[in-house]
Structure formats: structure tokens, C-alpha cells
From TrEMBL:
Protein name: Bifunctional NAD(P)H-hydrate repair enzyme
ATP-binding listed as a keyword: yes
Cofactor comment text: Binds 1 potassium ion per subunit.
Organism: Pseudomonas nunensis
Binding site for K(+): 70, 130, 166
Organism phylogeny: Bacteria, Pseudomonadati, Pseudomonadota, Gammaproteobacteria, Pseudomonadales
Sites where the protein binds AMP: 409-413, 438
Pfam families: Carb_kinase, YjeF_N
Length: 495
């Protein structure tokens, strides 16, 4: 199956992620719109049972129910599977008589025994349903819940989680004692914790089930967080048309360092493959022969003194610039980055150019006044931004503070805009953990920025294209392979 094509039929509304608070609001608004809590829970449990029936043949199932509504969903699942003829047992943390409202009503429909939760109940189960706690867990798992899940994870019996694996925090993906599920069924929309690590790895396959929540609820909630997907930016992706010439596709300029010359070259190839009409690397004169002998369509422009480089920036030829890959952490890099930012033209500050601000992070904030993207990995981020809080919160706070789009890289890259919007990326394979892939990423984003795409869209599209290119290649990936994989990714996106 062609994943890119089938994925792109999603709409951006379907990519929205809801916080735990927003999901509770969605439930309240659904009830106000006439869909009862009882019905929502019935639909939730039935959706879990349906997914189980799609994934497995009938076998002894053990449903572990908790004291809240997640447990209520578990009782519905148990009931539906039993009605379908599956052998089902239920074990519960606490008493079913302490359940409230719709959870209590649904539990009352379970006529079978309810065993007390303990590791012993796992005996004989060939499928385990984790309905202990949902995305809004308030404290770490302990006692019977912790011990029973831990014992379950030591065996080979598959675990299906309702909403989230119990112990995964829906807003942050942090784990307070969760164990890995093979399948997680959540409702209406994913939560950030389904995509942020370690949550994403603990969830296994994630299915989002419709439980009857009216679509209008999403407009009222106005989510600010999304899962990265072409539906968010494909319409704004620059495309050449019959009246396009190379100049109208933008001119990207990259600061080329010395002696680390490979990084800027890879970034340049990323920018050119992303569609930049012209791509130039500006290099200190001593490095000119090295760059010039290995580049063809990418131009190399030598400069003699830092002042010469400054003059280059004052011309109107360039539509976006990048500094950082192989630039060196020194006063010159600091100065060149400030000079780029002073123009107000689209600028990417990456790698060494981020670290160059470590003694004076405030200078970065003061200098940013045009479209700007910062692309730190975790260590670079910590050198200039506040390290506290989960990845989504930290990235948002950094973007708000400095006024740039911040791309905090990793397996769960977060892209945040100063206005509070944020996107979490989940398509990047671990083969990207190899030297130089970050340089290609900043180059791809540069190529899009140079063509006039907005900073936020360029960053989101760049991160996704980078992940898709790596996935296209598979094992054995080198950073320099990435630019040449982009044409195949574009072809599929546009087909
Ligand atoms: N109408 C709704 O609100 C719907 C809710 N749904 C389900 O409801 C779930 C959310 O329900 P709740 O808000 O009741 O949350 P939970 O089912 O996660 O239960 C929270 C309860 O557990 C207690 N608790 C939290 N951490 C604990 C710990 N470590 N040890 C022991 N007790 C702990 C809390 O004090 C609270 O009483 C969702 O995950 C989803 O499965 C679905 O039924 C769809 C509709
Ligand atoms: N385990 C991983 N899974 C997915 N993507 C990863 C993983 N590790 C790194 N990446 C991605 O690879 C790139 C590495 O960039 P960076 O750390 O700047 O490396 P370099 O400086 O060598 O270019 C980033 O885009 C990052 O998100
Ligand atoms: K759960």
C-alpha cells in the first residue's frame, strides 16, 4: 500500500491532538449536544471490543478495570466480547460499587464474577485488556496496579490498552509505571502522550475510535496541537508552474564553515532538492577550492573578511539564509548570525550557531524580528533555553520567549510557533540517528523558506519530508543519501 497517498486523504482536523482537559471538555460538550455519557462509554467499550475482534481470534481475555471511567470502558468491553462468545474474566482495582455514574451503570450489566486485582489473576489469560487508568492519571501507579501490570509485561500475552497504557500521562507522554501495549484504542482524537516519548513506544499501534462526539465540538475547543501530516501544509508547499523561473523559486544562502565543510554541503543539497531555485554557499576564501571542486549546480561564493560576508547579506539577491552546520562555535559565528537576523529576512539558526549564543541567550531573543527557525537537538536546546517541563511545554515556551519557530529534534520532534501552535512529528525512523542528518534537515527547511513558505509550515513540512525520505531508504542510511530521496517523496505526495 502507498502510505503517503492513503495518509494524505486525512484532513487537518483529524490531525488535531487534544489535551486531557480538552478531551474532558469534548465529553461535556457532547453531553450538552445530546449524546449521553452512558452512550459515549458504551461506544468507547464497543470500539475496543471491535478492534480486539479485528486483531485476534477468540481466546481467554482478562479485563483489568480501574476505579474511574477507564474502568467503565473496560466493563463495556468485557460485556461486548462475552456476548460475542469470547471467554472473558474481569479483575478490578477496588470495588465495583465505588464506581460512579455511567461507569457504575455499565459495571452493573456485567453479571460475571469480578476478581480482586493481583498478579495471580493473570493465570490463564491469553489477551489482557488494560482499563485501569486513562490519559488523565493523577499520580504514579502503585501496589496492585503496578505489580499486576509489571507481571503482565513479563509474560508474552499481548496487552490492549484503553485510551492509554495505564501510567502514561496523556499530555506529556511521561510514564508513571506503564508497561507496553501492542494496541491502544483511544477516542475522538489522539492526545500528545500518544506521540511523545516514551508514551508513543508504550502505546504500540494506536487506533482512534469515533464514539459519537459531534464534529462541531472541535471548533469550540480550537486545538493548538497537531500531529505532523501533509494535510497541515501540503496546500502551501511551493510547486513550480509553467510561468516559474529559477529566480521566482528563491535563492538560498548557506554560511559555509571551515574546516568542517561537509555539513554545509549536505545542507545545500537539501535546500536545492527541496526546490530552492538557486542555492549558494558563502565560504571563507581558504575553503573555496574544497567546496568548489565537489559542487556542481550549487554555487560557491568566496569571501575574504567577515565584512565581505556582511556585504553579501545586504544585497537583495537572497531570499533566506542558514547558519550553523559546520560553522564553528565562536565569535564570528555569533556575529554572522546576528547579521543575518538583523536583515529581518527568513533565517535558520542551527547547530553551532545556536551554541554560539550559550553565554548570551538574551541576544538571540533580541535579534529575532523576522521569520526565523531554530533547529536545536536536546543538548543545543539546553544551552539557550529553559530545560524544565515536558518536551511539548519546553518547546512552546522557547518559541514564545525568542519569537522564532523552534524545532526541538529527536525521535518525537516538536515544532512550536511563538503564537502557541505546536506540531509533534512521528514519522522519523531511528536510522536518522547518524551524523549529519540534522544538517540536511536545516537545508530542507531552508529550501522551503527560500521559496516563500512560512516559517512554521516550512519547519513542519521539512521535518516530515526528512522523516519520509529516511523511511524510504531503510537501513544503512547516511546523511548524504537524504537529499536524493526527496524526489520520490515529492512524487508520491503529488500523485
Ligand atoms: N464521558 C467521558 O468522560 C468518557 C470517558 N471515557 C473514559 O474515561 C476515562 C477517563 O476517566 P476518568 O477521568 O474517570 O479517569 P480514570 O479512569 O483514569 O480514573 C481516575 C480515577 O483514578 C484515581 N487515580 C488516579 N491515579 C491513581 C493511581 N495511581 N492509583 C490509584 N488511583 C488513581 C483518580 O483519583 C480517579 O478517581 C478515559 O480514559 C476514557 O477511557 C470514555 O468512556 C468516553 C467517554
Ligand atoms: N532515534 C531517532 N529517531 C528518529 N529520528 C532521529 C533519531 N535520532 C535523531 N533523529 C533525527 O536526526 C536528526 C539529527 O540531527 P542532529 O542531532 O542535529 O545531528 P547532526 O548534528 O549530526 O546533523 C534530527 O532531525 C533528529 O530529529
Ligand atoms: K488504560
Amino acid at each position: 500500500m502507498n502510505m503517503l497517498i492513503s495518509e494524505s486523504v486525512l484532513t487537518n482536523r483529524q490531525c488535531a491532538l487534544l489535551t486531557v482537559g480538552q478531551m474532558a471538555e469534548a465529553d461535556r460538550r457532547s453531553v450538552a449536544a445530546g449524546v449521553s455519557s452512558f452512550e459515549l462509554m458504551a461506544n468507547a467499550g464497543a470500539a475496543v471490543a471491535h478492534e480486539i475482534e479485528c486483531h485476534w481470534t477468540p481466546r481467554p481475555v482478562l479485563v483489568l478495570c480501574g476505579p474511574g471511567n477507564n474502568g467503565g470502558d473496560g466493563f463495556v468491553t468485557a460485556h461486548v466480547l462475552a456476548e460475542a462468545g469470547w471467554p472473558v474474566r474481569v479483575a478490578m482495582l477496588g470495588s465495583r460499587f465505588s464506581l460512579k455514574d455511567e461507569a457504575r451503570q455499565h459495571a452493573q450489566r456485567w453479571v460475571g464474577e469480578v476478581e480482586a486485582l493481583s498478579p495471580e489473576v493473570l493465570e490463564g489469560a491469553e489477551l489482557i485488556v488494560d482499563a485501569l487508568f486513562g490519559a488523565g492519571l493523577s499520580r504514579p501507579l502503585q501496589d496492585q496496579a503496578l505489580e499486576t501490570l509489571a507481571a503482565a509485561s513479563h509474560g508474552t500475552v499481548p496487552i490492549v490498552a484503553i485510551d492509554t497504557p495505564s501510567g502514561v500521562m496523556g499530555d506529556s507522554g511521561e510514564s508513571l509505571g506503564a508497561v507496553p501495549a501492542v494496541l491502544t484504542v483511544t477516542f475522538f482524537r489522539k492526545k500528545p502522550g500518544h506521540l511523545l516519548l516514551p508514551g508513543r513506544d508504550l502505546c504500540g499501534e494506536v487506533i482512534v475510535a469515533d464514539i459519537g462526539t459531534p464534529k462541531a465540538v472541535l471548533d469550540a475547543i480550537a486545538p493548538q496541537t497537531y500531529e505532523n501530516h501533509p494535510a497541515l501544509w501540503l496546500a502551501n508547499l511551493p510547486r513550480a508552474t509553467s510561468d516559474t523561473d529559477k529566480h521566482s523559486r528563491g535563492h538560498a544562502l548557506i554560511f559555509g564553515g571551515y574546516p568542517m565543510t561537509g555539513a554545509a554541503r549536505m545542507a545545500a543539497r537539501g535546500a536545492a532538492r527541496a526546490g530552492s531555485g538557486l542555492t549558494t554557499i558563502a565560504v571563507p576564501e581558504i575553503a573555496f577550492p574544497i567546496y568548489a571542486t565537489v559542487l556542481d549546480s550549487i554555487m560557491v561564493r568566496p569571501w575574504l573578511t567577515p565584512e565581505d560576508f556582511g556585504h553579501l547579506l545586504n544585497g537583495s539577491r537572497f531570499s533566506a539564509w542558514l547558519i550553523g552546520p559546520g560553522a564553528g562555535v565562536d565569535k564570528e559565528t555569533f556575529g554572522h548570525a546576528l547579521a543575518m537576523l538583523a536583515t529581518g529576512r527568513p533565517t535558520i539558526i542551527d547547530a553551532d550557531a545556536i551554541t554560539a549564543f550559550q553565554d548570551e541567550p538574551g541576544a538571540l531573543d533580541r535579534a529575532i524580528h523576522g521569520p526565523c527557525v531554530l533547529t536545536p537537538h536536546e543538548s543545543e536546546f539546553r544551552r539557550v533555553f529553559d530545560p524544565f517541563g515536558d518536551k511539548l511545554t519546553r518547546t512552546r515556551a522557547a518559541a514564545r520567549r525568542c519569537g522564532a519557530v523552534v524545532v526541538l529534534k529527536g525521535s518525537d520532534t516538536v515544532i512550536a510557533a511563538p503564537d502557541g501552535r505546536a506540531i509533534i512529528n512521528a514519522n522519523a525512523p531511528p536510522t536518522l540517528a547518524t551524523a549529519g542528518t540534522g544538517d540536511v534537515l536545516s537545508g530542507i527547511i531552508l529550501g522551503l523558506l527560500a521559496q516563500g513558505m512560512s516559517a512554521f509550515d516550512s519547519a513542519a513540512a521539512g521535518v516530515w519530508l526528512h522523516g519520509a525520505a529516511a523511511a524510504e531508504f531503510g537501513p544503512g542510511l547516511l546523511a548524504e543519501d537524504l537529499p536524493d530521496l526527496l524526489p520520490a517523496v515529492f512524487r508520491r505526495l503529488y500523485s
